[in-house]
Write a structure and sequence with these properties.
globular, 414 residues, Growth Hormone, Chain: A, mainly alpha
């Protein structure tokens, strides 16, 4: 069923929405499938778990700071510049990945280049474009676009597992590069001036966004507000909670005697449910108090982590299903709530750069969660310490929805 905000939408707006969805699905989906490459890389190079997870930590750190860069460049040069640089980086990094043979080279190519590339084409430009093309039910539209991350995992995780098994991890990365080359070639011919103008923005908006004459706080003004740091903490704490678990899910399930293929399918199923969860959360957030919707979402995350931990005692498909269902429906589900609220609170000339700056919290949190979970695995020989860390930070993220007034009551910046 097509959602109401899309039924009467102009075809051009639907095209922009579809384009954003594909960009998020391909870029973040490929980044998240690093969980599939975790064991092959460890076996190929003899790296311990902390070493292998540190590559993803660098990726997410670069993604976080790249989100700020993405917002600043979008506000200055418009979307075409972002997508050109981003897709070029993604095509190049995965193209070179198969020939890498040292941890440092993985840090730079997959970590730095891959993270910045994903940030340049991800939710930062998407939020700004959707805000120009959709006026009603913007939260729902953003949530569906945001769910592209889960859609990408759903499609690319099983595909990556099959490619690794059939061709090896080197060739699997080469196939990903070819896909981004195709997207780059298609992107070049799009009508970017029309796309950047939108139907909501004032007439003077062209490919270069408005400058200081537009209303709304700048980034320098926003960082003085408690709600900015509330969003920053939500991004960071939620990322620690989610990525402290998700990155090692496939390896963990294999250790619990599930096959590699079944583990990859479970991971892909989380991506499928993430699509549903993010879209559903966005629709609920348009109708009910967002702090209550967020509370329900964090509750599902906590139940999912507890179910995953229980597999050590009861490695049964029913327990695995509880984890996949709860964690899948909630992983990333806070994203559309945050993007919609920030579009309201910080609407104006600095929205893209402000959103990019708060995404540093997500990048740093994901990096910290991924690395700490890997380090604790090496130090303790198990996953329980990582699970406890994830549970604690889920509660920290939830607290911001209740403790920061502007976030709880959806008060726009005055």
């Amino acid at each position: 069923m097509v959602s109401k905000p899309l039924q009467s939408t102009p075809p051009a707006a639907l095209f922009v929405f579809a384009f954003c969805l594909v960009m998020i699905a391909s870029s973040r989906g490929m980044g998240e499938t690093y969980a599939i490459f975790l064991l092959p890389l460890s076996e190929s190079f003899g790296w311990n778990r902390a070493n292998v997870t540190s590559i993803f930590a660098i990726y997410m750190m670069a993604f976080g700071f790249g989100s700020l860069l993405s917002g600043l460049l979008y506000d200055r040069f418009g979307p075409r510049f972002n997508y050109t640089i981003g897709l070029a980086l993604l095509a190049a990094c995965y193209g070179f990945a198969g020939s890498l043979n040292s941890l440092i080279s993985f840090y730079f190519v997959i970590g730095v280049c891959g993270g910045i590339g994903a940030a340049m084409v991800g939710i930062v430009p998407t939020q700004s474009l959707i805000s120009r093309w959709f006026d009603k039910r913007r939260g729902t539209v953003l949530s569906v676009a945001y769910s592209g991350q889960g859609l990408g995992v759903m499609l690319l995780a099983p595909a990556a597992q099959l490619a690794v098994q059939k061709f090896g991890w080197q060739q699997a990365y080469q196939l990903a590069s070819i896909g981004f080359v195709v997207l780059f070639a298609l992107m070049v011919f799009l009508p970017w001036r029309r796309i950047a103008t939108g139907i909501i923005a004032p007439k003077h908006h062209a490919e270069t966004p408005a400058t200081a004459t537009a209303p709304g706080p700048s980034l320098a003004e926003a960082i003085r507000l408690p709600e900015f740091w509330g969003f920053f903490v939500i991004f960071g704490a939620s990322a620690i909670s989610v990525f402290g678990v998700s990155l090692q899910t496939v390896a963990y399930l294999v250790e619990q005697d599930f096959s590699a293929v079944h583990a990859a399918l479970a991971f892909g199923s989380i991506g499928m449910l993430t699509v549903v969860g993010i879209a559903l959360t966005g629709m609920l957030a348009d109708r009910y108090p967002r702090h209550l919707v967020a509370t329900g979402s964090y509750g599902l995350t906590i139940i999912g982590i507890l179910a995953l931990a229980m597999l050590q005692l009861t490695p049964h498909w029913a327990v695995l299903s509880v984890f996949v269902l709860c964690f899948g429906l909630s992983a990333g589900a806070r994203g559309p709530i945050i993007t919609a609220q920030m579009a309201e609170i910080f609407a104006g000339r600095g929205l893209a750069s402000i959103f990019g700056a708060t995404n540093i919290g997500q990048g740093c949190g994901a990096a910290l969660g991924a690395f700490v979970a890997g380090f604790l695995y090496d130090a303790t020989g198990g996953y329980n310490s990582g699970f406890i860390i994830s549970l604690i930070f889920a509660l920290v993220g939830l607290s911001m929805f209740w403790l920061v007034p502007a976030i709880r009551y959806r008060r726009p910046h005055a």
